[in-house]
Amino acid sequence: METQFLLAKAKDKELAKRGECGGAISALFKYLLDQGLVDGVLNLRQGVDIYDGIPTLVEDSEDLMETCGSLHCAPTMFGDLISNYLSDMRLAVSVKPCDAMAIRELEKRHQINEDNLFKIGLNCGGVVMPLIAQKMIDIFYEVDPDDVVKEEIDKGKFIIKLKDGSHKSVEIDELEDQGFGRRINCQRCELKVPRNADLAGGNWGAEPGWTFIEVLTDKGKKLVKDAKKSGYIEVKIPSEKAIGMREKIENVMIKLAHKFQDKYLEENYPDTENWDEYWNRCIKCYACRDACALCFCKECDLEKDFYNDENEVVPDPLTFQGIRMSHACFSCVNCGQCEDVCPMEIPLAVIFHKMQKRYRDKTGFIAGVSEELPPLYSPEKS
Amino acid sequence: MMKVAHSICPSCSVGCGVNLIIKDNEAVGTYPYKRHPVNEGKTCRKGRECFKIMTENRLKEPLIKEDGLKLSNWEDALDTVASQIKSYPSHEIGILVSGNYTNQEYETLKKFADALGIRNIGCHTGSVPSSNLETVALDDVEKSEFILIIGDVIKKYPLLGRRVILAQENGAEILAVDEPDKTLTGINSQEYIQVESASSIIDEVDDIILEKLSPQSTVLISNLESEDDFEKIVKFFEQSDAKIIPVFQDCNSRGAVNILPVLSSDDMKGMLERVKLLYILGDDPAPHMMESIKNLDFIISQGYLINKTTSISDVVLPGSCWAEKTGSFTNTTGETQEISKIVDAPGAALDDQIIIKKIAEKIGLDL
């Protein structure tokens, strides 16, 4: 279908106020729940503070208010949460590009039923690990992290709003030069607008109080049209200038991602000696496998008897990480969850991302984006 | 209905945050809790699978022994417990509790024992030092310049081990001391001193090492079989300027030690042989102390797990596991963290504090 650009906002005054950029996405969720088109909405809610994003299933549209607004310090993954626990529901889900990529790979493998899902995409420049955010706010902003009531990322800056209503901002470049800022996976990520969702919303190119929406599927088109007709959202056409502005922002971000890919996958890529040190730390806890949305096998090869090396101090990297890599790296979406959860700080995602990139160069298969399964797919090699 | 709820892992003493995935009032999985300052969403396998504790081998109903354990009800079970407790003099009653209860439960239990004048009370929670320990911030471990590790901390307590790895990445020197086998901690240290036994560890600490034990250094002490060795080693390193982290066994061993007497294996054996009625909470001495247990007239077991001790008890009271109650745990570095009730206990199982209070009420005590 032909791409369609819109500016939208919630008609409900409370949603428009509480939601990000006029609350258009919250209003779409409300429409879907009120009309009984979905059983639930999977979204993020703020826990104790802005660093605490908790996946939340909303089944009554009255409760949507608590999931309004955006959280950039919540490196969550919804793919396996849906396939493992919510596959029996008709769902609407807010997806960052990595969520959308994982979901697409799971749909192709029949772990998620596409027909049961509305994927409401969120443009994403990357997220920050919660504790890194607290540390950098303390160091660079000289602010008590507990005094921050809101954060946003805009025009290359990480902006915080304090209890007293004042704002402070620091260039993301400066933060990242010092090892803070966005997760390294996010720095390398080149999918900023989730075009693998039904629609993608965000503030790039938007006027204040409006969400810029790119409608990507017929399902998304019908949703926007019906929600407008039912009085949930107000819609207008963005100017050519706004469309151009959004495209420009996206392109700058992608260019930057390529720079970071060169930095982390080539220049700073660990050498063999480094890898030996990393593998020596492995406690074979399977956290990487369990966090990987793509590792969905009920019976995992890694736990089969012939790979049992429980008596060894460390697992053989060839028959542990090597096997996992041979099964999953072709479809790695660079979400970084494996690395996030590794208790031994092994930078796993760089190998997987590097391998996927090579595979992509040879075959044209882009994990999480391509419509088809990877070439020569077998369940053993996902 | 699905929700994700914050909790603290009950598997060891490090005190990691875990998110429990709850579906229809049942824990079905865990989800990374990345905002938690101890572990930032990282867990070991035990942590990730801790939700299984709630369903495996659960006690759900009160049981009373009549030719073997029979299903009973709270009224009868509590009446039996109260009348038995009343029938023994306080010096013939013992209370034994594990290191997995909340601080509030230890306090309630202490009040209960005090009200009855019971002196035979304590927590058997692995070998632990009883000295007053200072609280150490995990971030300080990461900033250490020198870390001395006794035992295989990296493998057995990975989220404490992670701070050692991070310190090493920051340039710290790591020295491991352990018994002869090759260990994960050993192969990840610059120097690895292999000793014959725990008692010879102190002999290996020469002047060069002593000099490195500055305020910017940390000593991690784990895996000591004997309480005496543990105590001796902790005392020895306490004389230095280094920060000391003894690694406790259970999720609230350190909390228990702050409130109740610590029982070594010998102390426990002594208690079992001294008393006639034993009220056990969460512990399972039967597999390794059967001979001493035979001396008991009456055993009351309270807990959430079916184990060898419950199977030989006279009354069994089904309690709650950590995600079914509210309270706090104190982790191995001395940090006290709150836990909240997330799911209901199964069957007729009750909150442990309520059980203790109900027993007290039946006896006629006001706690």
Helix content percent band of chain A: 25-40%
Average pLDDT of chain B works out at 93
For the largest beta-sheet of chain A, the strand count, sense and barrel status come to: 8 strands, mixed
H/E topology pattern of chain A: EHHEEHEHEHEEEHHEEHEHHHHHH
Specify which chain pair forms the largest interface: A-B, 37 and 37 residues
Q: How many β-strand stretches of chain A? A: 11
Q: What are the segments of chain A in which pLDDT stays under 50 over at least 5 consecutive residues?
A: none
State the strand order across the main sheet of chain A.
3-2-4-5-9-10-1-11
Structural class of chain A: alpha/beta
Number of helices of chain A: 14
Name of the top-level CATH class of the largest domain in chain B: Alpha Beta
Distance between the termini of chain B: 38 Å
